[in-house]
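job 3f2a | input accepted
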Amino acid sequence: MPTFDVVRIASPVPHRAPIRAARTRYRTQYLRARLHALRGYLRSLWFRLRSISPVKAATVLVATLAIGYIGLIAVVMSYAASTIASAQNVRNDEAQVAQLEANYLAQIAAITGTDYTALGYEKPSVIAYVPSARATALR
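job 3f2a | predicted structure (139 res):
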């Protein structure tokens, strides 16, 4: 059985560990600088917020809630107005349908109650029905 020798071939790309370490150091320094800047911003924001008096904060909160409440009332009132308007439109349409139906029923009553012999019509002497033509050949 043939044997093979293991031969290591040099890689054309240099070892990447130093490059990765440099990137990691750069990223770490960058993140530390960003975190330091964020801490400074939050610290200054905290001092600015601490300087606001509780009365002023409560006043701003009450004003915001009052404006929101007025807005909600406006929305509810506009919804109620549109609901009432649509209900009135339905009632108007029902009244028109009822009027048309009453006219129709009055005309049917007039036709049904008419004495056709007084108008000159005579009763037919023979009643004949015409057979209907077949619609298709399969019937």
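job 3f2a | The chain is about 65% helix and 0% strand.
job 3f2a | closed
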